[in-house]
Amino acid sequence: MVYLGNGGQTTVDLQGHPPDKFVGRWLNPRSGEWKRAAYAADNGGVVLAAPSEEDWVLRLRRQ
Q1: How much is the pTM?
Q2: Whole domain around residue 15: which residue ranges?
Q3: What percent of the residues of the chain are helix, what percent strand, and what percent coil, each to the nearest 5?
Q4: Cα dihedral sign for 13, 14, 18, 22?
Q5: Separation of alpha carbons 63 and 60, rounded Å
Q6: Cα 27–44–39 angle (5° rounding)?
Q7: Which tens digit of pLDDT belongs to each residue from 3-44?
Q8: How many separate domains does the chain show?
Q9: Per-residue pLDDT for 59 more than 80?
Q10: Cα distance from N-terminal residue to C-terminal residue, the chain
């Protein structure tokens, strides 16, 4: 899990695992709403951007 207090983006190192084997979801801690996370591969990791500039929690798990 990753917490972003002011939105933005984060890069997660997948340690050699293919990115298509992971599913990411953003949790809006203010409403409890979940949103699917889109990502871009970047040199062995993935870059994920929060849906807005508010705080979000990212849950990334292997399929």
Answers
A1: 0.84
A2: 2-62
A3: 5, 55, 40
A4: negative
A5: 10
A6: 35
A7: 999 999 999 888 777 777 788 999 999 999 999 998 887 777
A8: 1
A9: yes
A10: 15
Q: Position 56: which residue type? A: W
Instruction: Scan for tokens 């997948």, then name that residue.
Output: 14
Both tokens of residue 1? 């899990």
Strand order in the sheet with 34-36: 2-4, 56-62, 22-27, 34-36
Q: Is 51 a residue whose pLDDT tops 90?
A: yes
Residue with tokens 């709403």: 33
Total count of residues recorded for the chain: 63
Q: Which helix (H) or strand (E) holds 63?
A: none
> Contact 63/21 with Cβ under 8 angstroms?
yes
